[in-house]
Amino acid sequence: xxxxxxxxxxxxxxxxxxxxxxxxxxxxxxxxxxxxxxxxxxxxxxxxxxxxxxxxxxxxxxxxxxxxxxxxxxxxxxxxxxxxxxxxxxxxxxxxxxxxxxxxxxxxxxxxxxxxxxxxxxxxxxxxxxxxxxxxxxxxxxxxxxxxxxxxxxxxxxxxxxxxxxxxxxxxxxxxxxxxxxxxxxxxxxxxxxxxxxxxxxxxxxxxxxxxxxxxxxxxxxxxxxxxxxxxxxxxxxxxxxxxxxxxxxxxxxxxxxxxxxxxxxxxxxxxxxxxxxxxxxxxxxxxxxxxxxxxxxxxxxxxxxxxxxxxxxxxxxxxxxxxxxxxxxxxxxxxxxxxxxxxxxxxxxxxxxxxxxxxxxxxxxxxxxxxxxxxxxxxxxxxxxxxxxxxxxxxxxxxxxxxxxxxxxxxxxxxxxxxxxxxxxxxxxxxxxxxxxxxxxxxxxxxxxxxxxxxxxxxxxxxxxxxxxxxxxxxxxxxxxxxxxxxxxxxxxxxxxxxxxxxxxxxxxxxxxxxxxxxxxxxxxxxxxxxxxxxxxxxxxxxxxxxxxxxxxxxxxxxxxxxxxxxxxxxxxxxxxxxxxxxxxxxxxxxxxxxxxxxxxxxxxxxxxxxxxxxxxxxxxxxxxxxxxxxxxxxxxxxxxxxxxxxxxxxxxxxxxxxxxxxxxxxxxxxxxxxxxxxxxxxxxxxxxxxxxxxxxxxxxxxxxxxxxxxxxxxxxxxxxxxxxxxxxxxxxxxxxxxxxxxxxxxxxxxxxxxxxxxxxxxxxxxxxxxxxxxxxxxxxxxxxxxxxxxxxxxxxxxxxxxxxxxxxxxxxxxxxxxxxxxxxxxxxxxxxxxxxxxxxxxxxxxxxxxxxxxxxxxxxxxxxxxxxxxxxxxxxxxxxxxxxxxxxxxxxxxxxxxxxxxxxxxxxxxxxxxxxxxxxxxxxxx
Length: 928
Fold this sequence. Notes:
6-stranded antiparallel barrel, alpha+beta, 32% helix, 33 strands
C-alpha cells in the first residue's frame, strides 16, 4: 500500500537514497528530469502550426508566451505520477534548488494539477539530517527562478531558430548556433588565430653548474654586464622584443654569443657569490570546490573531461556522499566548517588547523552564492577510507579529491622561505670583458600546513620553466656573500618562442567563468555540444578548432557580431541572474533582445538584425586568405587549398589550422600533383588505372568509360528512354550504374611511387588462395576494415601483415587453419602504445589493436580510440580522460528483444494521418 505523502524528485538514484531516510508514510517517485518542454514546430497541433506559435512554439507578439507539451517519452511517467497522486494526501516537490529544478517542480504542478496540499522541499545534500530539515522548512515555488529558467529557454529557442538556418544556408546543413556554444567556439578559434599569427623567435640561454665550499647547485645566466638576458616572455607574438624589454636593455643571446659566453664561463676562475637573499614564503589553501574549479582540478589530477566529472559528481550527490554539484559558491555552512576543522585536527594535529575559521569569497563574474561549495555531505565528514567499500573506483577518486580540498580549506598556511643565490663571474677574451651573473632559487617549506592534506594543481604557462623561484622546492647550500665559487660547467641551449597554449577543457571552463559566459550547469554540456557539432576536436587533452568552426565564427562575427561578443553574452547571463532574483522582468528582457527597444522589431533586436542581413557571399564566408596566392576553402567534403590558377589540394583532417604553414602547404600541393596520376591501362579490361588521395587515405581505382546514351544509370540515358517510349524501371527504382573497382594502398606503399603493377595486385583483392582439399571450400585472402585476413566459408583467420594478402600460398593458409582458433584476432600482439598507471584503477594503460580498431584499456575498462584521433598522437592524459569518460557513462544498456504482436485483422476505416514522434529528450539542432 502506498504512503499518504508523495515526494517527487528528478532521478531514480536520488529517489532511492531519499526513500531510505523517510518513513513508511512517504512514497518517493522520480520524474526523470523535465516532463514537458517547448515542442519543435513540426510537432505542434495542426491548428497551431499556422498561428503565432508556428515558428518557435512561442508567441512573440503576446509577451513571448510559450506553448509547452508533455514530452512523448514522458507521457507514461506522467500517468504513473497522477496515479500515485490519487493515493496521497500531500505532495512534496523535492527537485534541485536551482533554476532547472524549480522549473521542473513548476511544470509538475501545472501538469499534475494536485488537489492536495503542495510543499516545495529543497536541500543541497542528501543526508538524513538534511532531509529532515527540508521537511520541516518547506516553502512555495519560487516563481522568479521559474521565470528565469523560462526566459532562458525561450531566449535559446529564439537564438537557435533565427541564427542556425543562416548557417545551414551559407555553410552546411545540420549546423547549430547557440547563445553559449557559439561564444565558446569563438574562444577556441580566437586562440588558434593567435597561434597562427605567432612568429617564432630564436633565443639562447646558458645553464651553469656552480661548486662552492658547502655544496654545488645548478643556476642559469640571468645578466650580462648589468642587463638581464631575454627569455621567451620578453618577445611579442610578432617575434620581436617587447617595448618593455627593449627599454630595459635586455640582452638577446644568439647561438654564437651564448656559445662564446659558455666557453668563457667554464674557463674563468674569478667567480664569487654576489648576493644571497631570503624572502618569507606563505601560501594559503585553495577555496572549496565550485563546479568550475572541480572540473579544472579533475582535469589536472585525474585527467577527466568535464562531462565525466559531472556525471560522477551527480552520482555521488544522488547517493548522498557530496553536496549539490552545480554551484558557483565557495561558502561552507557552520556545520561544514566545524566538521572540516575537527577532522583536520584529528588527522594532522592542532598546529595544522587555521587559528580562525576561513571564509572564502567567490571571484567569478556573476556568482550567485545560492548554494554551498561542493563538499562531503553531512555534519560529520566520512573519510575516503570509510566510503571506499561503497563507491566505485571512479566515484572514490572524485570523492577523495573533494574531501581533501574541503578539509585543507580550513587548515593553516604553508610556511617557509625562498632563497636566491646570485653568482658573479668575470669573463673575457680578445673580443672584450663581461660580468656574467648566474642565479638559482629554491623554496624550503618549514611548516607544511594544508599541504599535509592537499596541494592544488596548476596549468603550466608558456615559459614557466624559465622563471625563477616560485614553489619549486630545492635546498640550496648555505653560502654567504663574497664566498668563492667555481663555474665548472656551462651549457648553451637554444629555444624558440612558443605560441599561446591551446585550451584544454579545464582552461576553457576557467576562461568562460572569468568572462561570465555560461553558468555551472552549462559548462560540460557546452563543451560536449561544440565537440559533437564538429567545431572542435581533441588532440590529447587540448581542444583544436576545425576549419568549420572558423567559417561559423567568421559568419557570425561579420554579420551578427554582438551575438558572439564576450561582454554581450556575459551581460545576458547577468540579466538572467537579475530575473532569478526578482529584480528584472523576463518579458521585458526578451522584448529588448528580440524586438529591440521600441518593442516592434523594426529598427533593432535579433529579428531586425536577421531580416536586414541582405546578401551574404557564402564563398567568401567559407574562404580564408591563408598565404600569398593560396586560399583555404571549406567545401562540401571538407577543407581544401586553392591557388589562383585553380590548382587544388585537400587538407587532411589531422592537420591543425596552426600547422598549415608554407612548408606544409607545399607538401599538400605536391601530394595533390600525384592525386589522379595515371598509372597505366589494365590489360585485362582496357580501363585506365589511377592513384588518388581520398578522405580516408590513398587508393587506386579504375576509370570506367562514359556510358552510351542508352545505358542505364545516367541522366541522359533516362531522358532518352523517356523520350523514346522504351520500357522504364518501376517508379522509385533505378538501375545502379556500374562502380569502378577500388583498393586502398597498403601502409607500406606511397601515393607518389605506387606503380601499375602494385595497383593491379591491389585491385585483384580479394584473392583466391586455393581450395581446402578436406572440405572443398574456397580460401580467399581479403583486406577488411580491421586488417588483412583469410576467409573459408564462415571461418576467418587474421593475417599478420598486408603483404601476405598477395604472397600467402595454399599450404601456408592450410597451416593457419590447422591451428586452434583463438578468441578475437588470434595470438596476442604487443600493444601499440604503453602509458603509465591510470590514476583511478591504478593499472597500466595500453593501446591495443582490436577487432574493431585500436582501443585503450587498463585491463578492466576498454574504449575505442576516436576516429578523429590517431594512435601516434594520443597522449597519456587523453587516454586517462577517455577511460574516465567510459567509466562515468557506465555499461551500455542491453538491447531488449520483443516479440512482435500478431497482425490485427483489418477493417475498412477512414485513413488517419500519422506523424512521426521526435526521439525522446532530443532538442532541435538549431537550439543552444
